[in-house]
Every structure is written in structure tokens, then in C-alpha cells.
Amino acid sequence: QVQLVESGGGLVQAGGSLRLSCAASGSIFSINTMAWYRQAPGNQRELVASITSGGTTNYAESAKGRFIISRDNAKNTVYLQMNSLKPEDTAVYYCNANVLVVAKILVDCWGQGTQVTVSS
User: Fold this and answer.
1) pLDDT tens by residue, 53-65
2) For 112, what's the count of Cα atoms within 13 Å in the CB-facing half-sphere?
3) Would you call 81 helix, strand, or coil by DSSP?
């Protein structure tokens, strides 16, 4: 009923920047919190940053000062601007959204993931 489509991943050198986007579509009534998670090989999926519908943000310590999460509520889209990238930021990045669908049911939705690789 709801699809999240991510884009913007790729290969970048250490110190570079990337901007991830995630657009939600489908039977959406409203979207509460949107977030970015990441999972590196052999590691558990971890929260990178989240943003509420009102714009309140939360960041993992590793992301503070380097990453900026934002959203466009009119477009049901969340962004992650990643600056000063480090090799340890290499991971698959997943978009997450807590969606109230038109049937007035809360659904936790995930994107398919986008690879971010930072070379040293």
C-alpha cells in the first residue's frame, strides 16, 4: 500500500558529500516520523537520523555535525545531506517512515536500501 523509493547513494571519496532522498507514495493519509538507518556488513541496522512531521530532529552521535536530515511534507519526501564522509560511513542506507494509511492504520514502512561507499 505504501512504497518508499530511495535515491542518491553511490561511491565518494573521504571528505566528500552525498545527498540521499526517499519519496513515499501510495495510500498515505499522513506521515509521522521519517528516518534514515544504515547497516554495514556484519553490523546491526542502526539509526542515523530521524525527523518528526513538525521538524524535530534526532541524530546518532556519529552523524552529529556532519549529516542533516530534512523533509518536504508536501512531497512526502525525506532527505539526508551527508558531509565530511568517512570510510566508516560505508553501509546500506534505509529510509523508514511511520505512515498513517487512508484506512487509519499505522504502518511502519521501509525502503529497499541504497548503497553508500566511502573510499579512503
Assistant:
1) 999 999 999 999 9
2) 7
3) strand
